[in-house]
C-alpha cells in the first residue's frame, strides 16, 4: 500500500516537472495532492520577500455551489511569516502541522485559526494538514495546505501520521519543480526586459497581452476541435511563454529603424523583417519543446494565410532559403495556409489585434468598430479563418485581458 502510494507520488512528480508555467503548475499540484489525500480543499502560499502570498486555492464544496459561469472569488492576500497563523508558523519553523479540528486548537500553540474565510464563504474547516515547501538548500519556497480529508463515505476525518510523511515527500519534489519553474520564468523575464530596453513599443504590458490573447485564442480554437484537455493544458503554458518572446529578434535591429517615428522606407522594412528569423535563431539548439515552439512563433508570426507574409521558407541559422525552397531573386518561397505552424497563425492574430488597439510611433490606436472590421476583412487573407472564428467567439475575454494589462502612462 505505502509503496504503491510512493510510486504514485513519483509519477505525479514526473508529471509536474513537465509543466513549465508556474500558475498552471501550482493548480496542477493542488489538484493532484487533494485527489491523493481525498481532501475537499487546499491552498498554496508562495514566499515573496518576507511574506507569504496566498496564491492558489481550490475547494470542491464551494465549487459545487457555484452557478455555471461563476468562479470562486478570493482575493490575493499576504500574511507575515510569524508563528501567529498556521501557514506562517509552518514557513517560519519549517515544520509540518497536522490539526484535526481547526476550532479546537490547543491553547498552548502559538498560532490560531483565522475563521474569517469560513464565515465569509459559509464553509466549515475541520482537519488541516500544512507543510512547508523546502528546496535542497533548505530555503522555504512556500507552504502547501490541504483541508478536510474525507473517508470513502465522504465523512470528514483527520489526516493520519502516515499522511504527514507522504505529503512531506511530495512537498519536496513540488518545491523543486516550483523552483525550476521560477528560474525558467525569471530567465524569460530577463530576456523580455532586454527586448523591452531595445524597443519602447514592446512593453511588458504588450508582451503580456499578446501572450494572454494567444492562450485564450488557442483554448477557444482547441475546444472547438475537441483537443483533449490534457493536451490543451500542456501546450498552454508553452505557448504563453513563446508568445511573450515573439519579437525578441528585435534586439538585433538598429535603433534608427526600431525607434523611427514615421513610416519605414522599403529597405528599412526589409531589415525589420529579419527580426523573425533572428529571433528563431536564439532558440536553435532546441533543448525542449518550449524552445521549438518559441523558435516557431518567432519565425512565423508575420506569415499570412494567403502566402503574402514574411519571411517564408527561411532557414533561421543561415539566413538563406531552406534548400529546395529558393524563389525568385534568391528569396525564400512563401509559406501559406497550414504550412504556417498553428502557433504562428495564432500569435499573428494576437499581435496584430494588440497593435491595432495600441498607439505606436507610427500610428494612433484604432477604434473598436474599425478593428473588428479589419479583423473580419482579413480572415482568409492575413489570418487563418478558424483562428478568426475563435477570435470572435472570445472577443469579450480578450477585452477583459486588455483591462488587466494596461499600458503604463509614460
Ligand atoms: P508592431 O507595431 O507590433 O505591429 C505588428 C503587426 O501589426 C504589423 O506587422 C502589422 O501586421 C500589424 N499592424 C500594425 N499597425 C498596423 C496598421 O496601422 N494597419 C494594419 N493594417 N496593420 C497594422 P508588420 O507590418 O510586419 O510590422 C512589424 C513591425 O515592424 C511592427 O510591429 C513595428 O515594430 C515595425 N513597423 C512596421 N511598420 C512600421 C512603420 O511604418 N514605422 C515604424 N517605425 N515601424 C514599423
Ligand atoms: C497562466 O499561464 O498563467 C494561466 C493561463 C490561463 O489564464 O489560462
Ligand atoms: C506594412 O506595415 O508594411 C503592412 C501592414 C500590414 O501587413 O498589414
Ligand atoms: Fe514581429
Ligand atoms: Fe509585437
Quick tags:
single chain, about 400 residues, alpha+beta, Beta-Lactamase, Hypothetical protein af1432, 2 domains, seven-stranded antiparallel beta sheet, two-stranded antiparallel sheet, 16 helices, 9 strands, elongated, binds ligand C2E, binds succinic acid, binds fe (iii) ion
What is the secondary structure topology, with strand pairs?
Elements: H1 2-17, H2 22-37, E1 39-48, E2 51-59, H3 60-65, E3 78-80, H4 86-93, E4 97-99, H5 116-121, E5 128-134, E6 140-150, E7 156-157, H6 161-198, H7 204-224, H8 229-244, H9 255-258, H10 266-273, H11 275-281, H12 289-300, E8 314-315, E9 320-321, H13 342-357, H14 368-377, H15 385-393, H16 395-404
Antiparallel strand pairs: 1-2, 1-6, 2-3, 4-5, 5-6, 6-7, 8-9
The chain binds ligand C2E, succinic acid (2 copies) and fe (iii) ion (FE) (2 copies).
One succinic acid (SIN) is lined by residues 21, 23-24, 215, 236-237, 240.
Task: Report a brief summary of the structure.
Helices cover 50% and strands 12% of the residues.
What does this structure look like?
The chain is α+β, with helices and mostly antiparallel strands and 410 residues long. The chain has two domains: 2-181, Beta-Lactamase, CATH 3.30.450; 199-404, Hypothetical protein af1432. Helix content is 50%, strand content 12%. It contains 16 helices and nine strands. The chain has helices at 2-17, 22-37, 60-65, 86-93, 116-121, 161-198, 204-224, 229-244, 255-258, 266-273, 275-281, 289-300, 342-357, 368-377, 385-393, 395-404; strands spanning 39-48, 51-59, 78-80, 97-99, 128-134, 140-150, 156-157, 314-315, 320-321. Strands 1, 2, 3, 4, 5, 6 and 7 form a seven-stranded antiparallel sheet that branches. A two-stranded antiparallel ribbon has the order 8-9. A hairpin with a 4-residue loop joins strand 8 (314-315) and strand 9. The longest helix has 38 residues, at 161-198. It starts with a helix and ends in a 6-residue tail after the last helix. The model has no long low-confidence stretch (mean pLDDT 88). Bound molecules: ligand C2E, succinic acid (2 copies) and fe (iii) ion (2 copies). Ligand C2E binds at residues 201, 260, 263-264, 272, 302, 351-352, 355-356, 360-363.
Amino acid at each position: 500500500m505505502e509503496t504503491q502510494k510512493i510510486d504514485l507520488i513519483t509519477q505525479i512528480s514526473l508529471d509536474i516537472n513537465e509543466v513549465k508555467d508556474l500558475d498552471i503548475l501550482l493548480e496542477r499540484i493542488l489538484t493532484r495532492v487533494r485527489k491523493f489525500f481525498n481532501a475537499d480543499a487546499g491552498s498554496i502560499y508562495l514566499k515573496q520577500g518576507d511574506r507569504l502570498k496566498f496564491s492558489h486555492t481550490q475547494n470542491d464544496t464551494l465549487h459545487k455551489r457555484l452557478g455555471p459561469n461563476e468562479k470562486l472569488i478570493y482575493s490575493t492576500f499576504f500574511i507575515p511569516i510569524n508563528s501567529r497563523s498556521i501557514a506562517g508558523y509552518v514557513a517560519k519553523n519549517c515544520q509540518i502541522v497536522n490539526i484535526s479540528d481547526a476550532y479546537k486548537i490547543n491553547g498552548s500553540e502559538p498560532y490560531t485559526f483565522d475563521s474569517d474565510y469560513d464565515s465569509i464563504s459559509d464553509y466549515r474547516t475541520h482537519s488541516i494538514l500544512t507543510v512547508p515547501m523546502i528546496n535542497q538548500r533548505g530555503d522555504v519556497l512556500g507552504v502547501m495546505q490541504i483541508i478536510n480529508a474525507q473517508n470513502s463515505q465522504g465523512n470528514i476525518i483527520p489526516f493520519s501520521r502516515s499522511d504527514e510523511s507522504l505529503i512531506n515527500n511530495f512537498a519536496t519534489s513540488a518545491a523543486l519543480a516550483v523552483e525550476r519553474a521560477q528560474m525558467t520564468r525569471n530567465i524569460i523575464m530577463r530576456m523580455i526586459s532586454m527586448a523591452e530596453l531595445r524597443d519602447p513599443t514592446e512593453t511588458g504590458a504588450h508582451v503580456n497581452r499578446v501572450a494572454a490573447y494567444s492562450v485564450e485564442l488557442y483554448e477557444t480554437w482547441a475546444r472547438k476541435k475537441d483537443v483533449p484537455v490534457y493536451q490543451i493544458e500542456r501546450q498552454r503554458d508553452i505557448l504563453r511563454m513563446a508568445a511573450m518572446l515573439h519579437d525578441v529578434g528585435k534586439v538585433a535591429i538598429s535603433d534608427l529603424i526600431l525607434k523611427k517615428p514615421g513610416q519605414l522606407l522599403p529597405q528599412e522594412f526589409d531589415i525589420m523583417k529579419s527580426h523573425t528569423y533572428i529571433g528563431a535563431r536564439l532558440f536553435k539548439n532546441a533543448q525542449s519543446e518550449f524552445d521549438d515552439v518559441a523558435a516557431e512563433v518567432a519565425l512565423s508570426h508575420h506569415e499570412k494565410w494567403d502566402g503574402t507574409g514574411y519571411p517564408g521558407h527561411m532557414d533561421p541559422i543561415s539566413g538563406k532559403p531552406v534548400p529546395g525552397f529558393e524563389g525568385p531573386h534568391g528569396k525564400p518561397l512563401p509559406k501559406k495556409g497550414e504550412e504556417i505552424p498553428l502557433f504562428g497563425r495564432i500569435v499573428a492574430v494576437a499581435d496584430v489585434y494588440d497593435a491595432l488597439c495600441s498607439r505606436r510611433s507610427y500610428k494612433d490606436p484604432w477604434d473598436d468598430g474599425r478593428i473588428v472590421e479589419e479583423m473580419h476583412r482579413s480572415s482568409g487573407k492575413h489570418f487563418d479563418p478558424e483562428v478568426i472564428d475563435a477570435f470572435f467567439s472570445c472577443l469579450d475575454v480578450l477585452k477583459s485581458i486588455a483591462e488587466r494589462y494596461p499600458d503604463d502612462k509614460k
